[in-house]
Specification:
Order of helices and strands: HHHHHHHHH
Largest sheet: none
Distance between the termini: 15 Å
Number of helices: 9
Shape: globular
Structural class: mainly alpha
Number of strands: 0
Radius of gyration: 17 Å
Number of domains: 1
C-alpha cells in the first residue's frame, strides 16, 4: 500500500515538475525537495545525506560529492544513484544543466534504479536530437556542441536563450511518469 501511495505522490510531483519546467522554465525548490524526499523513502541513510549535501552545497563544492556518490554506490551495492549523482553534478558544474535538472535525474534514479537512469538519459538524447532537427540547426552547431562536450568545456561563455534550451527536467519528468505508470499497471495487474 505504501508503494502505491508513493507512486501516486510521485506522479503528482512529476506532473508539477513537467508543468513548471515547460511553463516557467524553472522548478520551485519545494517541488524539488518533495520529489527528492518521496524518492528517498525506503533508501539507506547515505543517499539522504548525499542528496541533502547536493542541494545545500554551493556549485563549486558539489564536485566533491562525485567520489562520495560513487563510493556510497559501491558500498551499498546500488551504483545507479551514485552514477546519477555523478552525471547530474557534472552537468550542473559544467553549466550544461540547471540544478533542478540534476536533482530530477537523481530522484528518477533513486525511484527507478538503472531503468530510471538509462531511460532518462536515452530520452534526453532523443529529445535533444528531435529539438535540434525541429529547429533546423546547422550541423556545425551540433559539431560545436559535441566538441565542447568531448573537451569538457563549461558553457560559461555561451549564451543560450531560454526558449531554445531543452527542458531537461520536463523530459525527465515524462520518463518518471512513464516508469511509475508501468509500475502501477504491474501492481494492478497483480491484484487480479
Amino acid at each position: 500500500m505504501l508503494n502505491f501511495l508513493l507512486a501516486i505522490a510521485l506522479s503528482v510531483l512529476w506532473l508539477a515538475v513537467l508543468y513548471s519546467d515547460l511553463r516557467y522554465r524553472r522548478v520551485t525548490i519545494p517541488v524539488l525537495l518533495a520529489l527528492l524526499i518521496v524518492s528517498l523513502i525506503g533508501r539507506p541513510w547515505p543517499w539522504w545525506l548525499i542528496t541533502g549535501a547536493m542541494i545545500l552545497l554551493p556549485r563549486r563544492w558539489t564536485i566533491s560529492l562525485v567520489p562520495i556518490g560513487l563510493g556510497a554506490g559501491l558500498l551499498l551495492n546500488d551504483l545507479a544513484p551514485g552514477m546519477a549523482i555523478v552525471v547530474g553534478i557534472w552537468a550542473w558544474v559544467m553549466k550544461w544543466w540547471a540544478g533542478a535538472d540534476a536533482i530530477v535525474l537523481v530522484a528518477l534514479t533513486l525511484r527507478s534504479g538503472w531503468a530510471g537512469l538509462v531511460a532518462g538519459l536515452a530520452v534526453m538524447l532523443v529529445a535533444a536530437v528531435v529539438l535540434f532537427l525541429k529547429r533546423r540547426q546547422s550541423p556545425a552547431t551540433l559539431l560545436l556542441a559535441l566538441h565542447e562536450a568531448v573537451h569538457v568545456q563549461s558553457r560559461d561563455t555561451v549564451v543560450i536563450p531560454t526558449e531554445s534550451e531543452l527542458p531537461a527536467a520536463a523530459v525527465l519528468a515524462v520518463v518518471g511518469i512513464g516508469l511509475d505508470l508501468v509500475w502501477l499497471f504491474e501492481v494492478l495487474g497483480g491484484l487480479r
